[in-house]
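Exercise: predict the fold of this chain.
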Amino acid sequence: MIHKKKILSLVFLFILILQFDFLSAADEQKTDLPTSPLEAVPQAFPFVGKVLKNNVNIRSGASTNYEVLGQANKDQEIVVWQEAFGWYAITPPEGIFFWVNSKYVNEGKVIADSVNVRVRSNTDCEVISQLERGDFIEVVSQNGEWLQIKPPQKSHAWIDKNFVAYSKSYNIYAATSDESTENKLDEARKQKLFEEAKKYETDEFFKPVDKIEIDAVLKKYEDLLKEYSNDSEFCKKVKVEIENVQKKQKWIPEETLVVVEETKSISSENLLQTIFEGRLEIADGLVKKSRRYKLIHGKVRTCILLGNPYELDRFLHQKVKVSGKITSYVYRTVPVVRVEKVERLTL
């Protein structure tokens, strides 16, 4: 009897040992599992995240109160830049576009300070970011006075962090090989030279008419054609700019103002500095072989303007204040003003 009890005791002890080992192994296995996908790998911004579900809303701000810009689907990879209030700021995925007003953009370049980038084509919607003078944008389409653009570099969209898992680190400067790094540097240099040529052109055409150097502008582009003659797509883009410069050249007004009616001239030492206000419009029949402008006050023409057409065109149909010098008179009473400065007036 005693022998049986000893055997039973040993069996019971053996079972307890097995259970202890099993529970220890289970606990050890459990500690290897993350409590959530986001804890699988230590995070450092920026990183590449993977979306966990289908039809996850991407919004314009870090809350469900913000507008839905689009949706992300399961296993889609997104670049995450920062976290706020339980939301991730991400690079807007393909298919998301924003809007800017066309009056602040000239040939893909921003020409004003602190230009709002909006989620829709009106001023009642949210501002997603801002652009500064000199920034370049990629225009997709136009709706009235609004331009649909690809998301600028400074813009972010937002997604609920609970639907995103860490996938891998994101190195902004990473390159897969020395060759690809060299190609990227060359591409960056090429784009920089092109933008510099565009800026030189813009600055040149805002000079007084007699100071514009068309040949210098054309040379900038022609040098690009020579250096990158093997890049057909890039050369095609440069040639378009050359054609635009040549078109602008045709509109540069002559230094001598010729009128079809009697003109009273004023000697250079007696030129009168003056200021006019009114609505800027195109004038007809007063000046030959050049672009013609006039200021209208009510229904009355107050003066004729002589100046850089690419500066004046920006203010067409708007109320402005013009500073300049009277150089002559048309019909004896209408002054002809050589423009020195134009300012838009608020209505």
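Check your answer against the key: Residues 21 and 27 are 10 Å apart (CA to CA).
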